[in-house]
């Protein structure tokens, strides 16, 4: 069965960036798994509650400081890809101002390529594409808007489970999610939407199981 893997830097990123989209796929019967690179006991508890609202199938937790993201985490993402075998991966954007989000996006890009390398893994797997979401920094030229008019309420409810975060800065994150999804809805000609850019994995080479097509259509 086709599935989606969401890889995020911190608990709450899944809800702010793609909460409505995750729930939309769940409602359509498409499994969604979430891998989070950082966390602690309190924030992981919040993440579990949020992901339950969003309908997440498998949640892969970490116990690591918010800023402890580096290249050593690539293999964790590779492992999540090989375990869940998703058609697409949703993650952060390289254009996000948050350096941890940038690091996560780069690690995912590398892990997607690495996981498809048949000389490294007997169960190598090729992800078709990466969808880069927006958190605080708006994507200047989105490739796709997902209509979340009917699932925004789940994204907001999931975000509110991150109580340790949403209370910060006069409820900034809740206000941001409201304003951003309304803006994207205007652009997408619907009530609410979430925006993504598409990154194609680098798979051209002799070390991948699938390396050619019969035509371009």
What does this structure look like?
- The chain is α/β, with parallel strands linked by helices and 217 residues long.
- The protein has a single domain (4-199), classed as Rossmann fold, CATH 3.40.50.10320.
- 40% of the residues lie in helices and 15% in strands.
- It is built from seven helices and seven strands.
- It has helices at residues 13-27, 41-54, 74-84, 99-115, 152-160, 163-166, 172-188, and strands at residues 4-8, 32-36, 59-60, 88-91, 129-133, 144-147, 193-199.
- Strands 3-2-1-4-5-7-6 form a seven-stranded mixed sheet, with helices on both faces.
- Helix 4 (99-115) links the parallel strand 4 (88-91) and strand 5.
- The mean pLDDT is 94.
Summarize the structure.
The protein is of the alpha/beta class.
Topology:
Elements: E1 4-8, H1 13-27, E2 32-36, H2 41-54, E3 59-60, H3 74-84, E4 88-91, H4 99-115, E5 129-133, E6 144-147, H5 152-160, H6 163-166, H7 172-188, E7 193-199
Parallel strand pairs: 1-2, 1-4, 2-3, 4-5
Antiparallel strand pairs: 5-7, 6-7
Name the CATH homologous superfamily.
Answer: LmbE-like
Mean pLDDT: 94
Distance between the termini: 23 Å
For the record, the CATH architecture stands as 3-Layer(aba) Sandwich
How many helical elements? Answer: 7
How many domain units? 1
List keywords for this structure.
single chain; 217 residues; seven-stranded mixed beta sheet; 7 strands; globular
């Amino acid at each position: 069965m086709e599935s989606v893997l969401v890889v995020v830097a911190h608990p709450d990123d899944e809800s702010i960036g793609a909460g409505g989209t995750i729930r939309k796929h769940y409602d359509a019967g498409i499994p969604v798994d979430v891998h989070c690179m950082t966390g602690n006991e309190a924030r992981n508890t919040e993440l579990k509650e949020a992901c339950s609202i969003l309908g997440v199938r498998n949640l892969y937790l970490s116990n690591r400081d918010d800023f402890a993201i580096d290249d050593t985490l690539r293999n964790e993402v590779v492992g999540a890809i090989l375990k869940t075998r998703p058609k697409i991966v949703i993650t952060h954007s390289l254009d996000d101002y948050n350096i941890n989000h940038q690091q996560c996006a780069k690690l995912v890009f590398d892990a997607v390529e690495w996981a498809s390398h048949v000389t490294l893994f007997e169960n190598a797997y090729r992800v078709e594409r990466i969808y880069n979401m927006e958190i605080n920094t708006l994507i200047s030229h989105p490739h796709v808007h997902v209509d979340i008019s009917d699932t925004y309420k789940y994204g907001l409810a999931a975000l509110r489970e991150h109580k340790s975060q949403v209370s910060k800065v006069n409820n900034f994150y809740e206000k941001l999610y409201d304003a951003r999804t309304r803006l994207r809805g205007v652009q997408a000609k619907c009530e609410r939407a979430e925006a993504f850019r598409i990154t194609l994995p680098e798979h051209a080479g002799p070390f991948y199981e699938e390396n050619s097509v019969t035509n371009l259509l």
